[in-house]
Amino acid sequence: MKIFGKQSQSEAFAKELAGLLVGQPVMMRQCEGQWSISIGTSFVLATSGWRLIGAKSIIVTSEDDGHQFGLPSPVDAEAKANEALAGSRIAAVEMDARTGDCALRFADTLCLEILTWSSGYETWQLYRDGEFFGAVGNEGLR
After folding, report:
1. Per-residue pLDDT, 5
2. CA dist 52 to 7, 27, 37, 111, Å?
């Protein structure tokens, strides 16, 4: 029954996040081996893995960055994500209590998924005004 406590904690965290993040714009930035996702003016989410999904397919992922895929030039995931997200604001925040994955949904059908890539490490961390706010890994909030 221990997992239910973690799920409840993750669900409460997701509700708190929704209250703080809905209506905020998002800006992606790649930093030394990690991604920094600015949310509004107060929050920064640090992660190693994400994907941006459009109405019909994946637009770009963190794993695409720098790969050429037979294109004229390598994919610039930061530029491609920011171009797609320009003018969009978060409409909903969802968390999977089993995995710690977080979905930032936008009113225009875009969805930015922050993915958990490890069963042991905290895959993403959230900072508010530069101070630690929460970390999430497998089985949700830590």
Report:
1. 44
2. 25, 12, 12, 6
